[in-house]
Amino acid sequence: MKIRIEDAATLGGVPKETRSKHSGFSLWDSYTSRRDHDTMIQILLHEKDPENSKDVDGFNLPTLVYLAREKRPQHRHNFKAGAMNALIRVSSKISNAKVILNVDCDMYSNSSQSVKDALCFFMDEDKGQEIAFVQFPQSFENVTKNDLYGSALKPVIEVELHGADGYGGPLYIGTCCFHRRDALCGKKYNGRFMNDWKSEIEHVMETNLQELEEQSKALACCTYEENTLWGKEVDNILSISYNTSY
User: Rounded to the nearest 5 degrees, what angle is found at the Cα of 15, between the Cα atoms of 9 and 21?
Assistant: First the structure.
């Protein structure tokens, strides 16, 4: 994988021989605009295909899906919020995992324990059912000593978000966040609700992977949210910054 990434960086694109191995990527050859294209989806790794979803030691790899939602110039795409909405719908069809991690394309987790840390909050027997999301502060590399341009967002992360605890908790800052799927989809929680984390996640697995890809395309079309409560009562409408998120 490291060699493939370095080759793509050197060439400024994915080599043709690599693209030819994945039919989903070949669809891009018919388009010249990233703002005007059909839904493109390919399930690269999945438990339904165990022969091709194991690492060199024989262990199962996590599900991996490539998705480019449909975009048309005449329809609003709502930036990151629209992308998250499409991912939530498609993932509910393919895996339906109970927790969703959202990071920006130029960010990564610097702690392998972050998932366990987030789950500790969600699975807390006393207060876990009241928590919709767990987010981590953004850490930045190569910031100048005095941070003249405020790149590290210290006033927001160290002051404003903490100050919001008395008003129902801080807003979602747009990245570095573990979401409870049910919360994103508008489900309300009360003291009587207790999530059974030990239960099996429900899968919609009656079809093969090719059929599952085709069925999922409709969930990422650019008109899916028109005349619905998506972005109003369900999930996001705009999450460019923490001031405009849900």
Answer: 130
Helix (H, G, I), strand (E, B) or coil at 1: coil
* Residue 188 marked in a binding site: no
Instruction: Compute CA distances 98 → 56, 89, 112, 171, whole Å.
Output: 28, 13, 19, 20
By C-alpha distance, which of 213, 242, 237 is closest to 68? Answer: 213
Which backbone phi and psi does 190 adopt, to 5 degrees?
Answer: -145, 180
pLDDT digits 0-9 by tens, 179-238: 999 888 877 776 666 666 655 555 555 668 888 899 999 999 999 988 887 766 655 555
Which candidate, 91, 67, 71, places its Cα nearest to that of 79? Answer: 71
Q: SS3 of 177, please?
A: strand
Torsion, CA 185, CA 190, CA 193, CA 194, rounded to 10: 90
Q: What is the pTM of this model?
A: 0.78
- Dist CA 194 CA 203 (whole Å): 21
| Helix segments in 123-244, DSSP class H | 154, 161-163, 181-184, 209-217
80 is in an annotated binding site: yes
Q: What is the 8-class DSSP label of residue 202? A: P
d(CA 208, CA 45): 13
Label residue 16 exposed, middle or buried (CB < 10 Å: 0-12, 13-18, 19+).
exposed
DSSP state, residue 42: E
